[in-house]
Amino acid sequence: MDELIVYVNGKYVKKSDATISVFDRGLLYGDGFFEGIRIYNGKIFMGNEHIDRFFDAAKYTMMILKHTKEELIEIINELIKINNIKDGYIRLIATRGSYNLGITPPDDELINPTLVCIASNISMYKKEFYELGINVIFSSFIRMSPSMLDPQCKSLNYMLNVLAKIEASKRNAQEAIFLNNVGVVTECTGDNIFIIKDNKVYTPPIHVGILNGITRILVIKLLRELGYEVYEQEFTRFNVYSADECFLTGTAAEVVGVVSVDDRTIGDGKVGINTKRIMEEFKKYINKVC
Fold it and tell me: Mind telling me the catalytic residues?
């Protein structure tokens, strides 16, 4: 297999030659943001929505990007073509570039942002987990308040998510759910969460401290088109434990069922019938647009 080609600061280079400076602010301070985008059948899935969010993050972080939205789409499509990717994942990364060791960034005119784009394959969960469901825990770590750092910006500082993933792994679970500082369910380390009770669907509202995921938005739309009542409202771990069904959504994860939380069986311990229905509807939508 040919070596993967990635994009780094205007050049398409082999993976083994892809480097950035040790003084890059993304490395030193997490001073940057990223976006994850799926590829299906060699086509970008919901690319405009992801690129718009990437530029929103640039505004939020007061970072001036040197590329237009159209240029980023061109870069992604070129990487798909070069690497012959049919079904895969795009990781788009921007940092404030290289400067010195101080926290204070340089003046705007001195900033030369780093832009990296990787097109590769990804498997958030093993195939059998989509058939059998995953095991999840509540993390002991508290979700950061949006008043500290808004989750709509996919910051390069993912330490909280990493620690929660390690915690889940040590407890033989595949994912972890964050509560906020008042015990309200927010989201997982890489997914949004939905629960179903009495055929009604519930998902946490944005204000509790979640990323308004692009897959989340699509799934809510699809659920309502299927006739489900969907409520964006606060709930606690009690509601998760007592749910009839639970599932997660995300760009990398797509839609995956949850069969246990903190060793408590959800429903009958199998991926629920409603969850299977939305999984199928999601696949139909992908096939329609890609």
Answer: 154
